[in-house]
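A quick aside before the break. I want you to see a complete sequence-to-structure record at least once, exactly as it would be stored in a machine-readable document. Don't worry about memorizing anything.
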Amino acid sequence: MVRTLARRAAGAAALLAAVGLVPAASAFAWRPTGPGTVALPVDPDPVTTSVTAPGLSLDAVSNSVVATATVHYTGLAADLIVAWGDGARTRTSPPIASLPGRPVPTAGSVVFQHVFAEGFGFPFIAHVSIISPATGRELVGRDVGIIPRYRVTQHAIEFSPLNHCDSIAEAYTEWVIVRPSGVLPNKEWHVDRYTGAGGVEVVLPDFKPLPDSAVTLETTAAAAPKVGYRAYESDPLVSEFFDPQFVDLNPRLGSRSVTLTYNEKHGADCHIQIRTRLDVQLLTPGLISGPVASQ
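That is the input. The structure line, written in tokens, reads:
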């Protein structure tokens, strides 16, 4: 028992050190998979260690919050219970029947699946066990790392001046909005906005989307980036600059609307806003059917 507890504690410490404490900038190598999409390669089985019993073995892997347990057995079809470590259990169907939510053993093996609660995005260790229905005792067990992953979609950035930032003689203002390189590639938008001389003819704010500014990321909570946006008003004589601000893509913050207000860096008479919508989806890759956890 002491060795088992020590092994689980060591596995948990290693997982948390590898996932939760690595700076987001260096934790993962991001790669583009299509327009506006960035994907995260993830080890589908982050924790190893398998225990076997005579005539019975357990293979368990995880992908985001989906755990798949494959039980191999010899002899007649086994009547087994899989305990997932979170209070949920799944039991095989009887050999002559197929019951909803209970897999049917075939050809010496049976596959179970379970979807864990995300636990606010934090990685954790789940102890998956094969339980004897007759005795209630664990026959085989394995520790599996559960690392929730998410798809975070930042919809199009919408931009608007809040006031007329040029002289009263100029009806148009030239703007440059910049997304500096980092997790995402560098991108610039050059925008001429009619705000009316002195701001008389146009009611502000007047938000318009920036083309090709939407982006989708697949990420863990620990590796989720903050995407920076900065802007300046381009003028042949004196340009107006604004300090960068950030859209936080941390999935723990949930789906939400974001509005950033920028004030002129070296003055007080020019103000702009950008806004966007963020949608967060918990990923359940490889799930064959809905969550099953019944006997």
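Two observations worth writing down. The chain has a mean pLDDT of 78. The chain is about 5% helix and 40% strand. We'll return to this after the break.
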